Amino acid sequence: MDLFKGTLLEELLEIELFIDPGYRIEPGEKIIGEMTDLEKAVYTLIELRQKKIRNIMEKGEEPVFSNRKLTPVEALDKVRKEVETLDQLLWALIEDRLRVWENEVGIREKYKIVLIPPKDKTQPPDLSDFLKFILTGKR
């Protein structure tokens, strides 16, 4: 079927091995479900795209997209937009399926989905978590 040909959706359908999130469950987090195969595929494609971003930044790769070579800046912009789109899709799928729109949720090792307890608003945000997200793109 050519419905998804050349799109991110076609790539999702081709994923056979999923990448485990690998984040351990923290004290106070409550398991509320497990990722579906579609959610695992979206997560895996996000991870693969983030690896592509790191390769572009580290090696200055000029990937070819649609038979057109892009500059590293153009490629970074394109791949970052794809990651944003996939990230929004992932959380929409999880939040809608589990009906947790008003709660903070996370994904953990072995594809577990957890409710994250509310943070103490009197404490400043953890700088190390912020820097880790900025440097690696991982939450």
Overall 3D form: globular
- Elements, N to C (H/E): HEHEEHEEH
Spatial order of the strands forming the largest sheet: 1-5-4
Number of domains: 1
Number of strands: 5
Radius of gyration: 17 Å
The computed structural class is alpha+beta
In the predicted model, the low-confidence regions spanning at least 5 consecutive residues are none
Strand content: 5-15%
Q: How many distinct helices?
A: 4
Describe the protein in words.
The strands form two sheets. The chain has a three-stranded antiparallel β-sheet, covered by helices on one side. Strand 2 (64-65) and strand 3 form a beta hairpin. Helix content is 48%, strand content 12%. The longest helix has 27 residues, at 72-98. It is α+β, with helices and mostly antiparallel strands and 139 residues long. The relative contact order is 0.18. It is built from four helices and five strands. Helix 2 packs antiparallel against helix 3. It has one domain (8-136).
Features:
three-stranded antiparallel beta sheet, 48% helix, globular, 139 residues, alpha+beta, 5 strands
How is this structure best summarized?
This protein has about 140 residues and is of the alpha+beta class.
Present the secondary structure layout:
Layout: H1 8-14, E1 30-34, H2 37-59, E2 64-65, E3 68-69, H3 72-98, E4 105-108, E5 112-115, H4 127-136
Antiparallel strand pairs: 1-5, 2-3, 4-5
Helix pairs in contact: 2-3
